[in-house]
Sequence to fold (260 residues):
Amino acid sequence: MFKALAGRTVIVTGGSKGIGRGIAQRFGAAGLNVLVVARSLADAERVAGEIGPHASGFSADVTQVEDCQAFAAAALERYGRIDVLCANAGIFPAAKLDVMTGADFDLVMNTNMKGTFLSVQAVLGAMKARRWGRIVLTSSITGPVTGFPGWSHYGASKAAQLGFMRTAAIELAPWGITMNAVMPGNIRTEGLDGLGADYIAKMEASIPFKRLGGVEDIANAALFFASEEAGYVTGQGMVIDGGQILPESLGALEEMGSAD
Ligand code: NAP
Fold:
């Protein structure tokens, strides 16, 4: 159904764990060269090793402009082209408003929003030169659609990514570059596991599918946005959440019944 992307190159920030690792593996299986970016070189190289010889790791902190320029340069040097950027690196430390510091706020915004901007800016030269590019942001349902106590800064950063995207997509349209966003619900990752078993059990109960998503659910959506066939889709977010944002109350979940 889809034309092959084999031989093209994708950069996945935050590609060493969780959703980013799932994206890197999915794109690697589709035959793309994969640059796995994370601050930990060992973690990035481990995932690259899992993918195969057409993948490699690179250490970069997306909050630093020089680091973002460096990962783009590395992709060009190693693979000769940059076709797809998955700007996925992100953090979600919880802090309620009464204890949140300015430093807490800055760290989340700098990583999730400024890191997205710097990563995108770093690849534009290579994409514009080919007059083709696919940029896929990892946003969230938290912020753009829903809220959760402790994550006001995180929600702001994830909504900000969508605001950034809507204008950037217009600016990039003349070069055949699209920008879209995956908006995951609760996906089983190292980062999410850190929130604890109680959080996970309550979250599973609130999802119509009664389970958290897998990283492959997000990776498949990212691969669609990266495809040739999605070339007329830009500036859009896709919610992938097992129906999590749909129930308007606990009653809606109680009334849904079961298949038994
Ligand atoms: P994770 O398991 O904690 O993995 C985070 C990844 O980002 C790691 O590879 C980490 O590697 C990298 N990273 C963090 N800060 C970085 C920085 N400053 N520079 C470069 N890389 C950095 O997280 P996840 O759950 O997969 O989440 C990934 C993305 O999905 C985030 O944007 C998150 O907001 C979003 N998301 C997740 C969920 C979910 O349920 N899991 C739901 C909605 C949205 P290093 O630590 O080595 O840098």
User: Anything to note?
Assistant: The mean pLDDT is 97. Residues 3-238 form a domain with the Rossmann fold fold (CATH 3.40.50.720). The chain has nine helices and seven strands. The beta strands are 9-13, 33-38, 55-59, 84-87, 133-138, 177-184, 237-240.
